[in-house]
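User: For my dataset I need records formatted as: sequence, then structure tokens, nothing else. Please produce one.
Assistant:
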Amino acid sequence: MPIEKAIETAYAKDLDLVNISPNAVPPVCKIMDYGKYRFEQTKREKDAKKNQKVIEIKEIRLIGVGIDTHDFETKGNHAIKFLKSGNKVKFSIRFRGRELGHPEMGYELMERFAKYCEEVATVEKAAKMEGRNMLMFMAPKSGK
């Protein structure tokens, strides 16, 4: 249909002529109420956004590798609470002074944390040294 006739038809029906694919030969247009279309589109986007769950990364920080059992359990329980609520957990150990010469102690501590949380989480990213810090990421187990 010629463009002039399409514009007249849309004007007669009190609707808009919307160009669907301008690169096609010939260009494809549609007669619709564009304001209503935009309103419905934003409404669908809002509904989709409501149903999404935002996953946060919670950090559990340890200063040094010499941690007592009670402190370890407290930090582990916090991690389990975060994981059960659907968040990821980032464990970080900050090495001070001569502790930097014994990274194996940090790996052992991270292994203990992984074992402590294994019922509710899986290790997403294994323990790794980055400067003075050692980092490990855990994600909640799926399929609940």
